[in-house]
Amino acid sequence: MNTNISFAAASKDYQKGQYLKSLEVLNKLIDTQQDVKTYVLLAKNLLKLGFKSEAASAYALAGERDSNKESPYTREAALLYFACGDEEQALLQALRVMTLARSDADLACVLASIHTRQGRKDLVSPYRKVISESSNPDHARLAVQLLSDDILDATNATLVHNLFKKFPDIMPLRLLKLVFAREVCDFDLVAREFLAVQRMLDKGDLSVLERDNPFYNLHWCSDEALNALASHNPSLPLKEAAARRRAVPHAWSKKIRIGYLSSDFWAGHATMKLLRRILELHDRDKFEITLFCHTEEKYLEHEAGTVDRSQWGDVCIVRGMTDEEAANAIRERQIDILVDLKGHTFGGRSRILNYGGAPLQATWLGFPGSVTDVDLDYAIGDRFVLPESSEAHYHEKLVRMPESYQPNDPANRPKPKPTTRTQVGLPEDAFVFASFNANRKINTEILDVWCNILKRAPNGVLWLMLSSPHTQTNLLNYINKKGIDSDRVIFCPRVSYEEHIDRQQMADLGIDTFPVNGHTTTSEQLWGGLPVLTVQGTNFASRVSESLLNAIGLPELVAADIKAYEDMAVVLANSPERIAEYKQRIRRNAGIMPLFDAERFTLHLERAYEIMVERAKMRLEPDHIDVPALPPRTTPFFSFD
Q1: Crossing angle (nearest 10°) for helices 171-183 and 187-202
Q2: 3 state SS for 132-180
Q3: Kindly report the CA angle at 451 between 536 and 467, in degrees rounded to 5?
Q4: pLDDT tens digits for 247-279?
Q5: Where does the record place the O-GlcNAc transferase C-terminal domain (predicted)?
């Protein structure tokens, strides 16, 4: 057979639309002429005839024979495999030409989509920009998913702004724009862009919540019934998934095997400031502890040689695994209770739990609410953050710790050292109200109250920690419009943890934010001897400070409502003797009350785990659990002296 004539004939038939005839010639030709052009023409014919998967294979073969390492045929193969749902082959082909994806939105979409579904969002950064610049609405929707986590990444705000300009009707983009506006306290922008959301809610249309980021939803919505509707991507029938998981045979052992899942297993993270001592104190005669770690390597390298993570448990690195692979690694270790410490917070990989890694799965500590779309049996809290009224709004069963859900570490946390107001830039004769909470937690409602407090307490100043100069400008503009002079607001930068522990004691009163309280921030202030004023909340995120204040023996600093909060702040600004008494009580109670009693907390937590396992062994469904309290301590367990 004259191959040149045969190829020309096949090509001519293709041009005429005679695809079957062209294909017949190519099938004969392919035995002797396996070159790029033959496979490309084969792919084109197969595609015209509707055989996408076979066309993808032909393009892949053409790409292998192409001298161009960034072959357009390999690209076509990747796109076709992806369209056919063959993500394994699509990823294989796309990775061969991944450098093209930085300027090719279609190819970038393939890589980003697959990495995201595999739980590897850490790999999608190179593709975000080109996807966000595409005019394809499907690409815009994917870009929203890729932009939903790292609020501290400066490029995200720009990308969201550009996307929203092109697609103002895509609600997730509006919600994301609001997230970034709240981060820098741009209250005018928040008010303007939230109108469309409010109009939907006023009409009873709650569909807007189904595309809201669950974590950032908490920053504007204090109704836990509505919080439970916020969802990244509702897809998993949770009851069916839980039934399948629990039906898998499981071999219980004498010891209870606990697996903790997190990206925060490094000593400098706020979570470990709370949790580290509990991990060290777990009773190894009764419990086996494994840390399923997806912490970024840069944090581990920074602490290498200074922190012995083996004291926290056996470490299993799942960072480079897909969600399914990580779940398989968990299952191989026969974990009894898998505890996710992240939920819907930055860096979380809670969807690993949707692959059924353990017969019992729980959420604790990281996310202050129901972890929607994740297969969970239990949410660990306490009677303050998870009262009975919360039960209707959680798909998880509630485990109530007897005192506070929040652990604290008195052994590894630095004790506050003596300092002066001059050293931290505070006036000696003023009453200092302080808020060290994240700036995104500050809204106009709480700012109005703070301005009222300053008007009614003329000797008071407000001490705030800043995330950026832009935030400072926005805050001052708002406060000035409310009639408060700029010199009554003192801003401080972020500093080292040790410096922060020292400086916060120079304030007179911590004033909390709503609807998201200080969490670790509040316990740090109490550790530093600073009393904190809060309000009874309406969901987990707004009840945390109430829990912590009760655990340190200061329940009277929980105001019944926002008006009582304002009045109490004014009264305390004129009652230095009461502030002194609160500070003395905190220092005295810290060594005997539950808040900083890590040993007591560990025993309560372990009892919670034992109850969960006891029920499971009896083949009982998960149910709400109130963990019984140990008798109160009668002698101090530590002292600041």
Answers
A1: 140
A2: HHCCCHHHHHHHHHHCCCCCCCHHHHHHHHHHHHHCCCCHHHHHHHHHH
A3: 85
A4: 999 999 999 999 999 999 999 999 999 999 999
A5: 253-406, 419-603
Rounded CA separation 418/441 (Å): 29
- HSE on the CB side for 580, CA within 13 Å? 4
State pLDDT tens for residues 456-485: 999 999 999 998 899 999 999 999 999 999
The DSSP code sequence of 197-230 is: HHHHHHTT--GGGGGS-HHHHTTT---HHHHTT-
8 A C-beta contact, residue 478 and residue 464: no
* pLDDT tens by residue, 70-86: 999 999 999 999 999 99
Whose CA is closest to 98, among 130, 66, 57, 67?
Answer: 130
- Tell me the pLDDT band of 235, cut-offs 50, 70 and 90: low
Tokens of 52: 């996408």
Distances (CA, A) of 361 to 337, 350, 388, 534, 605: 6, 11, 21, 32, 15
Predicted pLDDT of residue 141: 79
Span between the terminal Cα atoms of the chain, in Å: 97
Of 636, 528, 635, nearest to 591 (Cα)?
A: 636
Cα 393 to Cα 409: distance, rounded to the nearest angstrom: 31
SS (H, E, C) 247-298: HCCCCCCCCEEEEEEECCCCCCCHHHHHHHHHHHHCCCCCEEEEEEECCCHH
In whole angstroms, give the CA distance from residue 243 to residue 302: 42
The first and second tokens of residue 415, run together, are 């004790």
How far apart are alpha carbons 139 and 106 in whole angstroms? 8
Q: Provide φ and ψ at 333, rounded to 5°.
A: -90, 5
Residue in this structure with the two tokens 């082909």, named with its chain if needed? 93
Confidence class for position 149, pLDDT limits 50, 70, 90: low
Interhelix angle 52-65/36-48, rounded to 10 degrees, is 170
Q: Map tokens 């809201």 to a residue.
A: 212
Q: Provide the residue type at 319 as one letter.
A: R
